[in-house]
Automatic annotation (TrEMBL):
Residues 34-65 are annotated as: Disordered. It comes from Streptomyces microflavus. Residues 39-65 have a biased composition (Low complexity). InterPro entries: DUF305_CopM-like, Ferritin-like. This is DUF305 domain-containing protein. Keywords: Signal. Residues 66-204 form the DUF305 domain. Residues 1-31 form the signal peptide.
Length: 214
């Protein structure tokens, strides 16, 4: 589904980690939000006993790229789960419903690794991208449209939306593999890429996918 028609507040600003990730992907122009300049990471990040704020610094073994990836992938999976839940129940084809059910389980398992990773990095388990239309992110508007659609129209919305999610999350994860520093984050990113490639291959073979995805 097209993201070009969605309106975005002109004064919205991305979290401080987002410009790094968008620069890696070459998507700063298409994201539609203003960006901030990423400060150089401090040589000795200061950690306190207080709960980390949404802008908490990553641990010394992390880079801003690691933080940007983990803080984007977590809400991407969380938002995709809502669409997958709808598809598992409302898809018109048994194969589509089975695909959505399996992918839902896989994305939940990934969250079971992403959330502890955030904790190890000293980052909050919150959506720092809330209110921003990030490429590949399932939005509330997407969910509203899917909820109102029926039959083949629902299938097309699901196939397009989940295809975009899989493609962009794979692209983001490849950037983490290339530019990240943490071994645990890079390994998880590699596992996500493998899972996304397999899911995209299966998606393309689902009934109605050729027509829905062009």
């Amino acid at each position: 589904m097209s993201h070009a028609t969605r309106s975005r507040p002109p004064t919205a600003r991305l979290p401080v980690v987002a410009p790094i990730l968008l620069a890696l992907l070459g998507l700063a122009a298409s994201a539609g939000c203003s960006t901030t300049t990423e400060p150089a990471p401090a040589a000795s990040p200061v950690h306190t006993a207080a709960a980390p704020s949404p802008t908490a610094s990553p641990s010394a073994s992390s880079t801003p790229t690691d933080a940007a990836w983990a803080q984007l992938m977590t809400p991407m999976n969380e938002k995709a789960l809502a669409l997958l839940t709808l598809a598992a129940d409302r898809g018109t084809e048994p194969r589509l419903r089975a695909f959505a059910t399996r992918l839902h389980s896989g994305q939940e398992a990934e969250l079971g690794r992403l959330r502890p990773l955030l904790a190890r990095m000293g980052l909050p388990d919150t959506d720092v991208h809330a209110g921003h239309d990030m490429p590949g992110m399932v939005t509330e508007a997407d969910l509203e449209a899917a909820g109102a659609a029926e039959g083949g129209a629902f299938d097309r919305l699901f196939l397009t939306g989940i295809r975009d999610h899989l493609r962009h999350s794979a692209q983001v994860s490849r950037s983490e593999i290339t530019a990240g520093a943490r071994a645990d984050a890079k390994q998880l990113a590699a596992d996500l890429v493998t899972a996304r490639e397999a899911a995209l291959t299966e998606l393309e073979g689902l009934p109605g996918a050729a027509q829905a995805l062009g």
